[in-house]
Every structure is written in structure tokens, then in C-alpha cells.
UniProtKB/TrEMBL annotation:
Keyword annotations of the record: Membrane, Transmembrane, Transmembrane helix
Annotated organism of origin: Halomonas chromatireducens
Official protein name in the record: POPDC1-3 domain-containing protein
Transmembrane segments: 52-71
Domain of life (superkingdom): Bacteria
């Protein structure tokens, strides 16, 4: 009788687990629910070892994923340079995500007068504007124009332009960048 009650309790926990929004709570509740089903399966007239095996497998998988999830939630300590960068520029990113982004970046110490952009590299000056706590708009800071004749000389681009209804274009094609960085809801 008690094992049947425990089994119903486990199923209520499973339902509750799928209603929570936090993945750590979902995993923890699911582990508790799976553990609660084990006595029910064991104390049947003929123990249901295969069902118990599957529940143990789910417990192990969810336990592993819960540990990984909790390890990724630990606060990280930023060094002095990272802390300055986070406070001055990248406040919209959580420190762990900022560090992941910085791993892709290359840092260089430069001297006064040192060339930052090589010949044949065209920089694009961009402007970052904070729209809200969660949004940053990126626009080009200067006028940008592409060579219209070079565009029309490319057969692929010419086909696209013809499909869009342009038989010819001017010498310059103005281009503007208007992008929005949005922090996903947590």
C-alpha cells in the first residue's frame, strides 16, 4: 500500500518537474521522483528489474547533467583587465559569457603611432548605442557605399539584382548597418 502511494507521489513530482522553469529544479525533482518509483517496482509480486534499471539510468543521467549545470552556475572571478572590460563595455553580458567571448579575441599591446589596420583592409567604424538594459543597437558611424559597377560585374549579384527588379544601379550603392544585440531572457 505504501509503495503505491509512493508511486503516485513520484508521478506528482514528475508533473511538478515539468512545470518549473529552472533546469536545475527540473533535474533535481526528476531525480527525487525516479528514486521514489524504485520501491514500487521492487515490491511488486515479481520485481520489475528492467523498470528499475531504466529509472537508475535516468537518475544517473539527470545527476550528471545537474552537476554540470551547477558547476556552470558557479560565480567566476574576473582578473583586473576582464573586470574593467566588463564594467566599462560588456555589462550586458554575464561574466562567464564574456569570458567565453574573450577567449576568441586576440589582445595586442600597441605603441603610440603603431599601425592597427594594414593596407587593403577597410575598417568599418561602428557605433554602439544602449537602447535599454538588455538591448544594444549597432550602426555604422560613417557613410558606407559599395561600387555599383563592381556589383553589376559579378554574375551572381547581377542575377540577384535582376530578380529584385534592378536592371542597372548607380556608381555607388549606399549601405547601412542596423543591428540589434538582445540579451536573451534568463
Amino acid at each position: 500500500m505504501h509503495t503505491v502511494a509512493l508511486f503516485f507521489f513520484a508521478n506528482v513530482l514528475f508533473c511538478l518537474a515539468y512545470m518549473v522553469r529552472d533546469m536545475a529544479y527540473l533535474r533535481a525533482i526528476t531525480i527525487l521522483a525516479a528514486c521514489s518509483t524504485l520501491p514500487y517496482f521492487y515490491f511488486q509480486a515479481v520485481p520489475l528489474y528492467s523498470a528499475m534499471g531504466w529509472q537508475v539510468a535516468f537518475i544517473v543521467i539527470n545527476s550528471f547533467n545537474l552537476i554540470v549545470l551547477l558547476l556552470h552556475r558557479r560565480p567566476i572571478k574576473l582578473d583586473e583587465q576582464e573586470q574593467w572590460l566588463h564594467e566599462s563595455t560588456l555589462r550586458f553580458l554575464k561574466p562567464r559569457k564574456m569570458r567565453r567571448l574573450l577567449r576568441l579575441a586576440k589582445t595586442h599591446d600597441i605603441k603610440k603611432g603603431e599601425v592597427l589596420i594594414m593596407k587593403d583592409q577597410e575598417p568599418l567604424a561602428v557605433r554602439f548605442t544602449r537602447v535599454s538594459a538588455d538591448e544594444i543597437r549597432i550602426t555604422n558611424a560613417e557613410r558606407v557605399a559599395l561600387d555599383g559597377q563592381a556589383l553589376m560585374a559579378d554574375p551572381t549579384l547581377r542575377s540577384v539584382m535582376l530578380l529584385l527588379g534592378y536592371e542597372q544601379i548607380g556608381d555607388e550603392v549606399p549601405v547601412s548597418l542596423d543591428a540589434m544585440l538582445i540579451r536573451p531572457a534568463s
